[in-house]
Design brief:
single chain; 435 residues; Fumarase C, Chain B, domain 1; Ribonucleotide Reductase Protein R1, domain 1; 3 domains; two-stranded antiparallel sheet; two-stranded antiparallel ribbon; 4 strands; elongated
């Protein structure tokens, strides 16, 4: 059954129906569609637009449809135009003419806008919960490694000593910002478009505030044209999800480097690694690599939404049907990545000795050596030059700042004394910095 057949004298072509259909991807909104319809029916009865008897028939029928879908008793018809048409047709088949009254004072335009907002609120909460779980794992791992000294990097060159716990907390800060962005986007999305009709509202004496409150919204969309044509919230959420993937991808790159033989800072658990079909020695970080790769998919979803919306006049246009596949894919991809990534981090082994050994090379305590001279009264630029000369000497003699004899230090400056070894100790360097 098509909801718009009265104007047409011909059956729709199969090609048109297949191209126009959205049931394959919008059927996931069945629960939200039914929930919104229940709130709408209650409001219609409260306003005297339908009778209480019809309201009860509608509510009972919708609840039974919901129960049957979730139990598997009722299969969603893949030939239906969309989930809204399917549920309304099923309701009418079950309860008769009362089902035909449900769409009073409502258009598919505000119905779709409502369903996707309800769906994305739920999806946002699910991603936020997964981010919280990742943060809990990062906090645990960071606490376990607050004394694990490692080299910090700039330009992928060893720079200064840090502790691995603080390194992990840097990623935690990124994911905390992601949580904030998702919460902000959800806040701006949390207004009900129901009652906006096709674009210009309705002549019925409806109560939009009643349905908004019943559905957990903070208020109503004030402008009916904007209510049905706004997809800013999809774009904003896709942007927030893209940043989640940027952070996961950066983290994945580090994981891939760290578990290579060249670094060997960590080892991934066998349960979260794969092997090679031809090289028996291989242990591949496939989860991290796939997360890194899937970031491009989510970025593409964001670009899809931006491109779809950039040239649309008010109000609703069929182009906007393209919003769901993109934003649903973005959410599904991020949830899949977080679900695999979090236990991979939780179960990885940290090779503390390898990290410490790497930190001992590369003269990453050179800044601390210069600071030592500065605290003795030497201008920093002079201290910097002297320390650079010491590093150059150590490279030639195969020494490190920690092993260079004191008499050698004194050849560069009389300010050096035995306490220099405390100042350039890697643990001291890492712990004494203001964080």
């Amino acid at each position: 059954m098509k909801l718009w057949t009265g104007r047409f004298s011909k059956e729709i072509a199969k090609e048109t129906n297949d191209f126009n259909s959205s049931i394959s991807f919008d059927q996931r909104m069945y629960k939200e569609d039914i929930t919104g319809s229940m709130a709408h029916a209650k409001m219609l009865a409260a306003q005297g637009i339908i009778t209480d008897e019809d309201k009860e028939k509608i509510l009972t029928g919708l609840q039974n449809i919901l129960d049957d879908i979730e139990s598997g008793k009722l299969a969603i018809d893949p030939n239906a135009e969309d989930i809204h048409t399917f549920i309304e047709a099923e309701l009418t088949d079950r309860i008769g003419d009362a089902g035909k009254k449900l769409h009073t004072a409502r258009s598919r335009n505000d119905q779709v806008a409502l369903d996707i907002r309800l769906t994305l609120k739920k999806e946002t909460d699910e991603v936020s919960d997964l981010l919280q779980k990742l943060l809990a794992v990062l906090d645990k791992k960071a606490t376990e490694n607050d004394d694990t000294v490692m080299p910090g990097y700039t330009h992928l060159q060893r720079a200064q000593p840090v502790v691995f716990g603080n390194y992990l907390r840097a990623y935690a800060e990124m994911f905390k910002r992601d949580l904030g962005r998702l919460a902000d986007a959800k806040k701006r999305m949390n207004f009900s478009p129901l009652g906006a009709g096709a674009l210009a509202g309705t002549t019925y004496n409806i109560n939009r505030e009643m349905t908004a409150e019943a559905l957990g919204f903070d208020g109503i969309c004030e402008n009916t044209l904007d209510a049905v044509s706004d997809r800013d919230f999809c774009i904003e959420l896709a942007n927030a999800l893209s940043l989640v993937m940027v952070h996961l991808s950066r983290f994945s790159e580090e994981i891939i480097l760290w578990c290579s033989w060249e670094f060997k800072f960590i080892e991934l658990d066998d349960a979260f690694s794969t092997g090679s079909s031809i090289m028996p020695q291989k242990k591949n970080p496939d989860i991290a690599e796939l997360v890194r790769g899937k970031s491009g998919r989510v970025f593409g979803d964001l670009m899809t939404l931006l491109t779809v919306m950039k040239g649309l006049p008010l109000a609703y246009n069929k182009d906007m049907q393209e919003d769901k596949e993109a934003i649903f894919d973005a959410f599904d991809t991020v949830k899949m990545c977080l679900t695999a990534f979090t236990p991979m981090i939780d179960t990885m082994t940290v090779n503390k000795e390898n990290m410490r050994n790497a930190a001992a090379k590369g003269f990453i305590n050179a800044t601390d050596c210069a600071d030592y001279l500065t605290k003795k009264g030497l201008p920093f630029r002079d201290a910097y030059k002297i320390t650079g000369e010491i590093v150059s000497h150590c490279i030639k003699t195969n020494e490190t700042l920690e092993t260079l004899p004191l008499e050698q230090y004194k050849q560069f400056s009389d300010l050096f004394d035995g306490d220099v070894y405390d100042a350039i100790n890697l643990e001291t360097c890492a712990k004494n910095r203001i964080k």
